[in-house]
Amino acid sequence: MSQQRHGVTPGNAPGDRAGAVPAFPDLPEATIARLPEYLRALHNLGDAAADTISSEGLAAAAGVNSAKLRKDLSHLGSYGTRGVGYDVTLLIEQIEYVLGLDQRRAVCLVGLGNLGHALAGYDGFASRGFKIVALFDADASKVGELIQGLEVRHIEDLGRVAVEENIAIGVIATPALAAQAVADVLVDAGVTSILNFAPCVLSVPANVDVRKVDLAIELQILSFHEHRKASLTALPGGRSAASAGNQEAVGS
Amino acid sequence: MSQQRHGVTPGNAPGDRAGAVPAFPDLPEATIARLPEYLRALHNLGDAAADTISSEGLAAAAGVNSAKLRKDLSHLGSYGTRGVGYDVTLLIEQIEYVLGLDQRRAVCLVGLGNLGHALAGYDGFASRGFKIVALFDADASKVGELIQGLEVRHIEDLGRVAVEENIAIGVIATPALAAQAVADVLVDAGVTSILNFAPCVLSVPANVDVRKVDLAIELQILSFHEHRKASLTALPGGRSAASAGNQEAVGS
DNA sequence: AGGCGCTTGTGAAGGCGTGCACAAATCGCG
DNA sequence: CGCGATTTGTGCACGCCTTCACAAGCGCCT
Ligand SMILES: NC(=O)c1ccc[n+]([C@@H]2O[C@H](COP(=O)([O-])OP(=O)(O)OC[C@H]3O[C@@H](n4cnc5c(N)ncnc54)[C@H](O)[C@@H]3O)[C@@H](O)[C@H]2O)c1
Ligand SMILES: NC(=O)c1ccc[n+]([C@@H]2O[C@H](COP(=O)([O-])OP(=O)(O)OC[C@H]3O[C@@H](n4cnc5c(N)ncnc54)[C@H](O)[C@@H]3O)[C@@H](O)[C@H]2O)c1
Q1: CB–CB of B193 and A226 under 8 A?
Q2: Within a domain: residue A88?
Q3: Residue B247 Rama label (left phi>0; alpha psi -120 to 50; beta)
Q4: Do B166 and B72 belong together in one domain?
Q5: pTM
Q6: Is B197 in the pocket of ligand 2 (CB under 6 A)?
Q7: Where do the segments described as Disordered lie (chains A, B) (predicted)?
Q8: For strand B105-110 and strand B52-53, is the pairing parallel, antiparallel, or unpaired?
Q9: Domain of residue B134, residue span
Q10: Strand D: which bases are under 7 Å from protein Cβ?
């Protein structure tokens, strides 16, 4: 439980720049969370623009400060060219390598209700190198159903299938009450990353990563800012304020 | 654009503790983001447990450090009792007041495709004081459709309906290409908080708060940690590490 | 009434992240 | 070939957040 902040100290063989990207930097978490945004911006720009981009330009496209962007990229030893900018293609390759997107990762989805159906039909998975290879549900009436060409299997088969398909990432879209049980099954099956949509805290071993997406929390944070804004408009210097949390709003 | 970090300095009338909760603390953003989690934990516990709870107990239920929890609660001037703990009912009231959940907030949802349908059918909105009062789509074949008893309207009606229903929060579930245009319409209609599911950066005036939920980013962050873990198992002291970003994993 | 155990609230310290400001590097052009 | 324009990479300072550690406060039991 104690947060051994991934004390990596990677075994970078001293002379291992055999043409490839450096071995493995231990990036700040804040940087990691932004890399996917840079990647998306690069893909959007790459379609129709020049083959290099300045930190200023990319930062604008990704909605961040340019100094932050440069520092982020410098962390992964990126090779920009002073006076010119970053090579778009090279940068995409680097970020994808660091994020491990060059290897296709098998994903399974548990819980095919309302939300699960939407997720199963989402093309944003495949377009980013993730492939949903299996669907699971506990409801016998759903087992066997075909969704996007994939058959819904019973959750009891998860252990077997996870090994067969080498599933690394599990997505939980069951009710909160079932989520912990599902997480346990996933962990037993060797899954080491979980994306949890159920509004609850999951307990997992230290080597398993959990991220959660909680709609209600997002709305409540917005609600707070609404509340605050409302209390401000009643004040003399009723200025408007910005930014909901880390997720900064970009001025128009 | 410059990040005026909501420089509030609220005009707290010096002697305004007229029986209610203190006027308006400017809470750290990190605290605000955790309050909903405490609230959920309290609701779960409140159902079947005692009428007070210790910081240790609540922290465990919310998956955080107990010192952090105490500091968070102290920020909103919470009245715990030393030697005893926090009064569950009172604490719920306080947090709900601060988050502005005592006032029902009207929400509209734009884009009723795959994801939009799931969101429209989600009961987690209503159970937290949010009410979806209108659905909008640009697709004429969808306009008129009834979803959960609500009729899908054309996006051109958004301006009018938003004023009628006093909509404060808009949820965007359209393709990324349409998201900016939808955001503009929402802003014009007076909406001041936006929850964006489309994978893109939105430009909005400084007084509008935007939060985004991006599935692909979450998966890519998990992918990074998978990548890192894989590179560690190949090392001599192949220890396992924990925590995916801020969203800490709880040890089993 | 007094003491004891428990729990809150907070001062202080350290770590992390951000953003400024500038030196170093590169390109293009005269 | 040299110079200026441009842009990267980063040292530094500042502020936010987290965590520890402990004094102050509260209730209960004797
Ligand atoms: N619908 C949304 O828009 C939305 C949004 C955010 C979060 N969520 C959360 O996502 C989760 C799912 O929401 P939903 O609306 O799809 O609910 P749902 O009830 O429609 O679907 C839940 C599915 O999980 C299956 N399930 C139940 N127990 C299971 C188990 N032990 N193993 C495997 N499958 C099991 C059920 O059979 C059902 O198919 C909930 O926790 C909800 O709070 C939903
Ligand atoms: N489906 C998922 O699980 C999922 C998950 C995460 C993010 N997303 C994102 O959410 C968004 C919606 O995903 P989806 O799968 O529901 O897509 P979808 O194509 O099924 O639905 C999009 C809907 O938006 C409507 N629309 C298009 N332009 C519009 C406009 N200008 N105004 C109003 N409505 C408009 C369309 O008519 C359609 O009904 C996408 O940006 C997607 O990337 C989806």
Answers
A1: yes
A2: yes
A3: beta
A4: no
A5: 0.90
A6: yes
A7: 1-20
A8: unpaired
A9: 105-213
A10: 5-11, 16-21, 24-27
> What is the CATH classification number for the domain harbouring B199?
3.40.50.720
Q: Alpha helix locations (H) across A100-238?
A: 114-120, 158-165, 176-188, 215-233
Give the pLDDT of residue B140. Answer: 97
A27: Cβ below 6 Å to ligand 1?
no
Q: Is residue B3 part of a domain?
A: no
**Interval A195-214 mean pLDDT:** 97
Q: How far apart are CA A110 and CA A161, in angstroms?
A: 13
List the one residue out of A202, A203, A198, A201 whose CA is nearest residue A215.
Answer: A198
Q: Which residues on chain B are in Cβ contact (under 8 Å) with A37?
A: 201, 217
B111 domain-assigned: yes
Chain A residue closest in CA terms to B120: A114
Give the chain A residue whose CA is nearest to the CA of B193.
Answer: A222
Of B36, B208, B221, the CB nearest to A36: B221
Nearest-atom index, ligand 2, CA of A115: 3
Rounded-to-integer distance, Cα B4 and Cα A247, Å: 14
Domains in chain B, number: 3
pLDDT tens digits, residue range A143-171? 999 999 999 999 999 999 999 999 999 99
Q: Residues B64-121: pLDDT tens digits?
A: 999 999 999 999 987 899 999 999 999 999 999 999 999 999 999 999 999 999 999 9
